[in-house]
Predict the 3D structure of the following.
Amino acid sequence: MKLLQTAERISNVEASDNVIFQRSLFAYHEASEIISGTLLEIGTGMGYGFEILAPKVEKYIAIDKYSSEIIEKNIGVENFQFHKQNVPPIVNIPDNSVDFVVSFQVIEHIKNDRLFVKEIHRVLKPSGKVILTTPNIKMSLTRNPWHIREYTHQEFHSLLSKYFNKTELKGVFGNEKTMNYFEENKKSVEKITRFDILNLQYNLPRKLLQIPYDILNRMNRKKLMNKNITEVNDVSVKDYFLKDADNYCFDLFAIAEK
């Protein structure tokens, strides 16, 4: 099954996604310096993290509700498993069976986030770790109707601390180049949302807004790329960095230990 390419599921296919795509790759590169043993990735998306993470572990288990070309290409590879399923719960993964779990930009889509975290805790071995990313609501420019919720760094830390013995919360920040893009994006979004005088983005049901949001998001990214195509194309993982989370990071980056 070929995965529908939307503005929500980014990849290197669409050039205008590059700034966001590199931010997503950054999380994988950071995780690759930590993981070992048996790894479970929940929410593989387009599968572009596989080539970064798989060489660092002995066994790679992937879960997503869709397959993808990268995942399908690796089915049959030794020590690789793919489970097509919705979560939670996490099906077919035994208790205390994996050393690390990674799940990037997924939890904001999960209705029962507590069960999601509880299930991750269940499948981890004692002293196992989960690495999670999710958008920082303080830096969201508008409501994303594909997300059930977004978190402040305090809320995210509190959620994980209910289930894990130790939680370290970092933030994904950008340098001047990525911040310039953010400011241009903010101006562009404000030009669109100023017409929402009835505040429909918050008052209408999420599902009614998903397709219009996706279309406008894609148009806006293309507009920003055409306005300054060199800067958009030049952004790489090196333009992002981790430090303690606050209200001004793009994403929350959590490492929690069982």
